[in-house]
Design brief:
The structure holds two protein chains of two kinds. By secondary structure, chain A is mainly alpha-helical. Chain A has ten helices and two strands, in the order αββααααααααα. In chain A, α2 packs antiparallel against α7. By secondary structure, chain B is mainly alpha-helical. The termini of chain B are far apart. The chains are: A mainly alpha, B mainly alpha.
Chain lengths: 338, 410
């Protein structure tokens, strides 16, 4: 039989409830203040860059008006200046870079994820990452002094045999004339684009590789089980799965190519009249314009350069946002970081 | 009118003798197919590639030397590759069929692209070192500055010590700014939620798109022209910090997000306040990833030329004072030297680029050694150390435990 313990009401002592407080302690309050301050400092610095660029660019934009986007000249002291040619050249170089780098980066990323023996993979990944870490000035001097003779020869060949394609035409170049030699192809957008493609290739490659490595194993193995070859699996499973990543990686590379400075400064000779003939001597870019002109700039010069820089920044911003949108929207994007 | 029964059984009254399912008739025509070997490289594959390569090389050599007036190394490579793919496809089609041919040819094309990428990297590295070999072989190149070396002086005078010291000082200042600020901000983004947090995060994301030249232009216009500070190593360091900060915050943010929530909850359940959880659990867990984030940010920052060009300017002599006068950095030294027409100066430029590349390579290797492990995975040494620490803790707990001799017995 159970022993029944009977307590009278006044014998029952309710245990004192432990104080549970929502209020964080002193350490927590200090820590969260510190974190908030650091967040605000970063926010303030980053917004200051954008706001200040806009504010300082304003006088130049007001002086040039809409002509800023249509004028092909750069004489801020006389009031005649605009970014039309510079932006067009920047885009030309960036598009050449992307056109050259995308096939290589796509194939390399597929090679790393699908074809390469397992032992080689991490070494290859390291090599591609190392390629991204090589400073752009190194690519610049290599492009100017080592690669340029080869691209000139290639350009000569293109201009001689494919000059019926408008972009490969070179005004003033006549293959029959022995006097018009390789110098016609010196310091062109073409050379600059190829050098910049070396810099954007690893960026694109690592985004694409990341996406291809997330192809669900079930779908891959399903394709193989149905008798698909490796290339068949790549075509019907990996490529559709990674499409967003491929587009996003390409755009990310485009954003980087637009902002590239020092390699372009080293290679091209600046000009302000736009031409679609990519093999011709002379090109330009917003960032190389800033690098060359700002050390000895007057007030209005600087303001004009700020306006050009702001235009460039807005372009790279849009490109990067579109890129991350593509990566995030793709099926694989949930866990990948662009 | 047809009834349901009619529809189901068919209106013709003859009951069908056919079974409900039929198998297709398999009449063997020809030899039974041999399963395609997959997943390994056979001797046949190797010999095919080898044969195709030899055929391609000899055909291209014939084309270039004898039959057509073609010339040039790039042209030779391109033609040789095209011929190689064609010959390879031909040989493969002798023993394979249909999709298998396409598969093998595409595998070759993918391999060729990877080889091209790696070859380009190797070409850049080797040609830089080769072109700078004359400067690199002089010991004075590493410990003298360039103030005494005129454009015509020999390579045994002057060096790049000023640029090396300048680079290290600039990057050290940039690290002092970016590491505390960047990591704290990343922790802020991870530990707090709210509208401000997501706003900060999107601004930081936007700022990763900032071309580095604009960071330099910003510092030039504010710090130097508006506030009147001189062009100096400090200004360059601030410009580089502005460029590095978003990169570091963003990758640190990603790394911190990977710290398992269960670890945080375990810490909170043991009664640790939030800041102790961050300091003793979150940060140590993510340590390898955080150091990788910082080192890769440094590798980007150390190679930047344009911001230093705008905010510090070129100098030829040693400068230990970051707050005044131009301070040289290795990329800027390379850039300045390479624009000179003198042979010796160009050799020095390539030498400086080679030294810069070695610095980046060392940083990169350190990052690889540190990183590559996911949050919470320890190296063997770390595991041994935390085991030892746990044992000390256990001993302490055992020693302090009150001996249960008297008390509740049921």
């Amino acid at each position: 039989m159970e022993a029944a313990i009977v307590l009278s009401a006044d014998e029952v002592v309710a245990p004192e409830p432990r104080q549970i407080s929502e209020r964080p302690g002193a350490g927590d309050r200090a820590a969260s203040k510190l974190m908030l301050v650091s967040g605000l400092v970063v926010l303030a610095t980053m917004s200051a860059v954008g706001i200040f660029l806009g504010q300082r660019a304003w006088p130049a934009l007001r002086e040039a008006g809409w002509g800023f986007f249509t004028t092909q000249s750069w004489e801020p002291s006389t009031g005649v200046f605009g970014v039309a040619a510079v932006i067009a050249f920047t885009l030309t170089i960036a598009f050449i870079a992307v056109a050259v780098s995308v096939p290589v980066s796509l194939a390399t990323s597929l090679f790393i994820t699908e074809v390469a023996p397992r032992r080689l993979r991490s070494a290859l990944v390291s090599m591609v990452d190392l390629m991204a870490a090589v400073p752009s000035v190194v690519y610049g001097i290599w492009g100017k002094l080592v690669l340029q003779p080869h691209t000139q020869a290639l350009a000569n060949w293109l201009a001689t045999w494919l000059d019926w394609i408008p972009i490969f035409k070179v005004s003033g170049h006549d293959p029959e004339n022995p006097l018009s030699g390789l110098a016609d192809f010196f310091a062109s957008s073409f050379t600059a684009g190829i050098v910049v493609s070396m810099m954007v290739m690893p960026i694109q490659c690592s985004v694409m590789r990341e996406v291809f490595s997330q192809v669900p194993p079930g779908e891959r193995e399903g394709a193989f089980a149905l008798g698909s070859t490796r290339w068949g699996m790549i075509r019907v499973v990996a490529m559709p799965f990674g499409r967003g990543g491929v587009i996003g990686g390409t755009m990310l590379g485009l954003g980087r190519a637009l902002g590239e400075t020092i390699a372009v400064v080293l290679i091209v000779s600046p000009r302000f009249d736009f031409t679609t003939h990519i093999l011709e001597t002379g090109s330009n870019s917003v960032s190389s314009l800033i690098a060359l002109r700002s050390p000895e700039a007057s007030d209005i010069d600087l303001s004009a350069l700020m306006a050009a820089g702001l235009t460039l920044f807005l372009m790279t911003l849009v490109v990067n946002f579109v890129a991350s949108w593509f990566v995030a929207r793709s099926r694989s994007g949930a866990s990948s970081e662009a | 009118m047809s009834t349901l029964v009619d529809i189901v059984h068919g209106t013709d009254a003859v009951p069908s003798a056919r079974p409900l399912t039929t198998l297709p008739e398999t009449t063997p025509t020809g030899p039974t197919p041999v399963p395609r070997p997959i997943g390994r490289i056979s001797r046949d594959d190797l010999l095919t590639v080898f044969g195709a390569a030899v055929a391609a090389l000899s055909m291209t050599a014939l084309l270039f030397g004898r039959l057509t007036p073609l010339s040039g190394k790039i042209g030779f490579t391109v033609v040789a590759f095209v011929v190689f793919v064609a010959v390879y496809a031909l040989i493969v089609s002798l023993t394979n069929e249909g999709p298998a041919i396409v598969d093998k040819v595409m595998a070759t094309v993918l391999t060729a692209a990877a080889v091209l990428a790696i070859a380009a990297l190797v070409w850049v590295i080797i040609s830089t070192v080769w072109n700078g070999r004359k400067a690199l072989s002089h010991p004075n190149f590493y410990y003298e500055d360039r103030s005494l070396a005129g454009p015509l002086s020999d390579l045994d005078e002057g060096g790049i010590a000023h640029a090396l010291i300048g680079t290290l000082m600039i990057i050290a200042i940039a690290l002092l700014i970016t590491v505390p600020l960047g990591i704290t901000c990343a922790v802020y983004l991870n530990e707090t939620r709210g509208r401000l947090t997501s706003f900060v995060r999107s601004i930081v994301t936007a700022m990763t798109a900032l071309p580095s030249i604009l960071a330099g232009l910003f510092i030039l216009a504010t710090w130097i022209l508006l506030l009147g500070y001189p062009r100096s190593g400090l200004a360059a360091a601030i410009a580089i910090s502005i460029m590095m900060l978003p990169i570091i915050i963003r990758s640190a943010d990603v790394v911190l997000r990977l710290v398992p929530g269960s670890l945080r909850e375990a810490s909170a359940a043991l009664g640790a306040p939030a800041w102790r959880t961050v300091w003793h659990v979150v940060l140590p867990t993510a340590r390898s990833g955080l150091s990788t984030a910082v080192i890769l940010g440094v590798a980007r920052g150390i190679g930047e030329t344009a911001p230093v060009l705008l905010t510090s300017g070129a100098a030829a002599s040693m400068n230990f004072d970051p707050s005044a006068n131009a301070m040289m950095s290795l990329p800027l030294e390379t850039y300045t030297l390479i624009r000179s027409p003198q042979e010796t100066m160009i050799a020095r430029g390539f030498g400086a680029a080679a030294v810069l590349m070695v610095v980046v390579l060392v940083l990169f290797t350190i990052a690889r050694l540190f990183g590559g492990r996911a949050a919470g995975h320890q190296s063997k040494r770390q595991a041994r150390r935390s085991l030892a620490r746990s044992q000390v803790d256990l001993a302490r707990i055992e020693a302090n435990r009150p001996h249960v001799t008297s008390g509740v017995t049921p």
